[in-house]
Design brief:
One of its GO terms (molecular function) is transmembrane transporter activity. One of its GO terms (cellular component) is membrane. It is a multi-pass membrane protein. By secondary structure, the chain is mainly α. The protein is about 70% helix and about 0% strand. Helix 5 (about 75-105) packs parallel to helix 9 and helix 5 runs antiparallel to helix 10 (about 235-250). The protein is globular.
């Protein structure tokens, strides 16, 4: 008994067969002093005398185990590894928008080809969201979690060596196909390890650890590889893909979601992963064994990932989801239509409005990144007050920022400082919208269709993203029509206010559904 106690209150040894590479990466050093927590009945392993207690002590539910363990070292490391999905999406959108004018000039693209270059990302992400969301719900989170990041890295890195436009388009599509799967799977697997306390705030942190580094890296790389008259776009595309490759190596150590195992009636596998997470966090599980999932009468277990897993009809099962799903689809469409349009438009507008060097444009975009910090910091706190009212507030702020940016770039009000200031405000409001919308969307669905639910919602996100750059390109051919495009982007944000405030359920403090 003392040997078992020393194993878990001292250093978790890599040679221990019961703790494989997954535990080694995600646990590190575990000491008995780290087992002091304040939620539920959590006690240190030394006080409990080991993991799981005696089999005669009865059973505990999965939610009881998660609440008992709390948020610890395992979750912090998982948070960082899940943030890579959002990092990849943001770098994809920002960098393609920034280097698109240079690619247009270098490859002699037509207006349609130029617009399709931005749209290719969203076409790929839409296809990836459908495919990988279904694979994740049907066959487990881990397959999608591993393969999508490798696909994103390979497509992104090789695109830097594209000899012509068709190959560049295909490689950007491949990278985007991986990104489309990363987002729903990353948020799903992270949510399924989280306790209820500050769950929304922790999901906002996934956005923060993804988007803040992504935009800083993108802006710095763009600045370093921009001259006064040109952009070395191949270097930019290659360098921003390297962090994704690093994360692809590290993500192979993440375990399968125990909540998914429980949903397909693999209770022993779920129990084992919970034991590993408890060891990583330096706490014990409740006494006894993990109880099977309690199902309504007539609802059979889906052994092996069959049955209802991935069944899209479940997205509309019950009055709450019948009202929630269409609202989420509309919110994703409106949010991405405005956001992708403005992200794609900003470099072009700064270039054509203020006639400054490419280096200066990159610096103006870098200043815009600073808006993320207060935007996401506010979201971290307000999301625990209310999901839907916080989301609605961010839509109003985003719409107002776009309208003021438009005024700062047209007519007698034209002012570069005001334009930069409004881009800072827009970045903060925009990311606040996405952070809370991601949280609300992944919380809304039960385990058998959680990744599919978020993936299908993001189809509308990606459709809007594919349309929006083309929409801007058409209006931007005549600079006098550009204010019309920006006005519509502002209106789309403001229209999203209504479906946000009428969402039928707010998930603050509520358990997620299995």
């Amino acid at each position: 008994m003392s040997e078992s106690r020393n194993e878990f209150t001292g250093l978790v040894e890599e040679t221990e067969e019961s703790h494989n590479d997954t535990t080694t990466l995600l646990s590190g050093s575990v000491t008995s002093s780290s087992g002091k927590y304040t939620v539920g009945r959590r006690r240190s392993l030394e006080e409990e005398g080991g993991l799981g207690g005696d089999d005669n002590d009865g059973e505990y539910t999965f939610d009881e185990a998660v609440e008992h363990m709390g948020f610890g070292k395992f979750h912090w490391k998982l948070l960082i590894l899940c943030g890579v999905g959002y990092f990849a999406e943001i770098t994809e959108l920002v960098i393609v928008g920034f280097v698109a004018p240079a690619i247009e000039k270098d490859m002699g693209l037509s207006s349609v080809e130029y617009g399709l270059l931005g749209s290719s990302s969203f076409i790929g992400m839409a296809a990836g969201a459908i495919f990988w969301g279904y694979i994740s719900d049907r066959f487990g989170r881990l397959v999608s979690f591993s393969l999508t990041v490798w696909m994103t890295f390979i497509g992104g890195f090789l695109s830097a060596f594209s000899p012509n436009y068709p190959i560049l388009f295909i490689l950007r599509f491949l990278a985007a196909f991986g990104i489309g799967g990363m987002l729903p799977v990353d948020y799903t697997i992270f949510l399924e390890f989280l306790p209820t306390l500050k769950r929304g705030s922790h999901i906002v942190l996934v956005d923060a650890v993804g988007v803040i580094p992504a935009l800083f890296v993108s802006a710095i790389v763009a600045y370093c590889f921009s001259g006064n008259d040109d952009i070395r776009w191949r270097w930019v595309l290659g360098i921003v893909s390297i962090p994704v490759g690093v994360m692809a190596v590290l993500r192979r150590h993440v375990p399968e979601s125990p909540r998914y195992y429980l949903a397909i009636n693999e209770v022993d596998k779920a129990q084992k992963i919970l034991e590993e997470v408890a060891a990583a966090n330096g706490v014990s599980l409740p006494p006894g064994r993990l109880a099977p999932l309690r199902r309504p009468a007539g609802d059979a277990a889906d052994g092996g990932g069959g049955g209802s897993h991935g069944n899209i009809s479940l997205l509309f099962k019950g009055d709450t989801l019948k009202a929630t799903t269409p609202r989420l689809w509309l919110l994703w469409f409106l949010t991405q239509f405005s956001s992708s349009g403005m992200v794609f438009a900003l470099p072009k507008i700064f270039d054509e409005t203020f006639s400054v060097s490419k280096k200066r444009i990159a610096l103006d975009l870098l200043w815009g990144v600073f808006g993320l910090v207060p935007g996401l910091a506010i979201a971290y706190f307000v999301v625990e007050r209310s999901r839907k009212y916080s989301l609605a507030g961010y839509y109003v702020a985003a719409g107002a920022s776009v309208f003021m940016f438009m005024l700062a770039t047209v007519g007698f009000l034209r002012n570069e400082f005001l334009a930069v200031l409004m881009s800072v405000a827009l970045r903060g409001a925009m990311e606040g919208c996405f952070a809370i919308l991601n949280c609300t969307s992944v919380e809304a669905y039960p385990t058998p269709v959680r990744a599919s639910g978020l993936g299908n919602a993001q189809i509308f996100d990606h459709i809007a993203g594919a349309i929006s750059p083309l929409f801007f390109s058409i209006f931007n051919d005549n600079t006098k029509l550009r204010p019309i495009a920006m006005t519509l982007y502002a209106v789309a944000y403001l229209l999203a206010f209504l479906p946000a405030v009428t969402l039928p359920k707010d998930y603050v403090g509520q358990a997620i559904k299995d």
